[in-house]
Amino acid sequence: MVRMPADRPATLAAWLRTRSDAQLAALLAARPDVARPAPSDVVALASRLAVPVSVDRALDDLDAATLQVLDVVLLAPTDGVDAAEVVGALRGLPEDVVADAVERLTTRALLWGDDVLHAPDQVRRAVRYPAGLGRRAAELRVTLPADLPAAVAALEPAERQVLERLAGDRPVGHLPEAGGGTASPARRLLQAGLLARIDALNVELPREIGLLLRGTEPLGPSRVEPRPAVVERDRAVVDRQAAGAALEAVGRIGELLAVLEEEPAGLLRSGGVAVRDRKRLAKALTVSEADAGWLLELAFSAGLLDVGGPHRDEWLPTRGYDLWREQPLADRWATLAAGWLASTRLPSLVGQRDVAGKAVNALSPDLVRHTAPSIRRSALEALAGYPPGRGLAPDDLVDLLRWRTPRRGDRLAPVPDMLAEAARIGVLVGGVLSSGGRGLLVAGEEGASDGMQGLLPEPVDHVLAQPDLTLVAPGPLVAELADTLSVVADVESSGGATVFRVSEASVRRALDAGWSATDLHEFFTRASRTPVPQALDYLVDDVARQHGRLRVGSIECYVRSDDHGLLSQVLGDRRTADAELRRLAPGVLVSGLGADEVLTVLRAAGYAPAGESPGGAVLTRPPARPRAAGRRPGLPAAAAGRPLTAAEADATVREIRAGDAALAARPAAPVRQVPGVTTAGTLEVLSRAIRDGVPVWLGYVDAQGSGSQRVVQPVSLAGGFLQGWDERRQENRTFAVHRITSVALVEEEAPAAGNG
């Protein structure tokens, strides 16, 4: 048994007081959740370190070897283990690995002590089955056989197999249902007192039996860090392939949002995008439905797609899309990559069946997994630990992550799909991080953009007109030219070079938007680096001659034309019945519907009407671009989980030290309200402190009702407020006198209490 010498700390709080400022700062940096808000003193810090959520979070970050070192202390028969004994208990681990693990555990206050290591009670409760062993028989209220080795040796093979399986990593097993025949091996073991029932369905193997079956390895096999085979690739090749994937992703997202700009996708009542809309988008983009779902998720994660419309029932491009499409290609890609990394969604689940057997839709709330960002980052950071041009195969990476965070092993199933997603956007190529991917991990969007600089082609401001009425864009287009081409032509194929086709429908669409034939001729001449084919000029002129022969105005509304025969044709056409037209006069038809509705019906019937203003001029109605307000779904980390900067850690340590100093200055006797003592007593002590220039011990309640004790150097007292230097916060503060609950000169023995 290890006895605690009189000069050694007896509690966690006492041990924390012996730590240096640098060691306390390291503790706060390793466990930032206990640093916000700053603890008032060491006792408050020790209390926060014992909060179950904080302990679980700290344990989740430990690797398998460190947890095995912790198991040695947790399984010790008495509280307190000599540090030298820990090394002897783990002979399969190198001594430097054990020493580093002890340092890691004490830095996080998961163990405390210097020569003798202790585990806080909350850590013992958090690790329910240390080393995969069950509780002691006494705790399980099981009476083991007097000669346990003989009893185990006499078991049948099936019964022994059950015990050996439970003696592995998890000592809890499911109890089979009782059948009509002989009892199962587990039930016979239960009857023999070699298993303990913990509820109606489960049993637990007592620790003593587990240790017996493990023999010379009571802690199980040594958990040595795996050394997987390293994948090597040429850095230049990796970056070129990543740039190709990035260009493809940016182009596809632009095409997707352009399609949704023209015809938004509906929002399902349960959330997400309907399969019908996903099929429509897949057809428009000439991709598979699965790819369409992935693109929707990527656009949403980047904040470029969201719910909007008059009734917030449509998926629309956001206002951020207009800014995004004007940015350089590297910045556009960085936005997509950063959105994916921070997303709390798992696009790989699109199309899979939920517990009710229903397929999960893209953009559905069912895809949300709040652990997704941390899993993505941990996987990429593991790859970032290798030099540029080197990485790991997916299976090897998963094995490494299981060793690094074994308590999170059940959350690593999506890692292969996440790696495939990273490859699709150019963060990863064949298990190796690209330069853009490394920049993304280090500096976010800015770093990702810098890493992709020089790898993506510059946007071009021209096309190449072909005799077959196609326009070839030899690279990504500048936003202005892309906008114009979306009106006057249709995308026929996309990739490194995008092919647009000019057709009768596209020319008519441009004329409907207010273009004239002259405008179109000038645009094609200006935009094309090759001569404009004669066939394209003829097409524009032919469509322009037919356009506007019909005029639609708003009287409720009217349709007029100098070609009376054409009006008769329109009036007798079955396809225009929905326009509800009737003849008002020679050359004039009227309708009870609005002008926009009549225009839509006539165009759908194959005519080429033009809108007309009340003055008789051709009315152009450029299509409005609907937008959603938009937001970035990847929310910033909560303050409690945000990493602590060195300056923040140092400031918090100063506050803790100041709080301890206030407690040390506080009289040993408890401070009590003394009947008959008024605020005058408080003012007298404060005035004396200002006159003599000595600090005071101050009890204070803030506006939120939180009480604290602090050492303050008073400076002035006026108007019911005390000005002074707060030693805990290291800043000048103003204190309302009526909120001061007690005050004492640091050199005095007893405080004067104010009744506030």
Kindly describe this structure:
The protein is of the alpha+beta class. Among the domains are: 230-451, no CATH class; 464-546, no CATH class; 553-635, no CATH class; 670-745, Roll (SH3 type barrels). 43% of the residues lie in helices and 13% in strands. The protein has 30 helices and 28 strands. A 6-stranded mixed sheet has the order 19-20-18-17-21-22, with helices on one face. The longest helix is centred in the first third of the chain and has 28 residues, at 235-262. The two termini are 53 Å apart.
What does this entry show, briefly?
This protein has 30 helices and 28 strands. The protein is an alpha+beta fold and 756 residues long.
Structure keywords:
756 residues, alpha+beta, six-stranded antiparallel sheet, 28 strands, extended, disordered C terminus, WYL_dom, WYL domain-containing protein
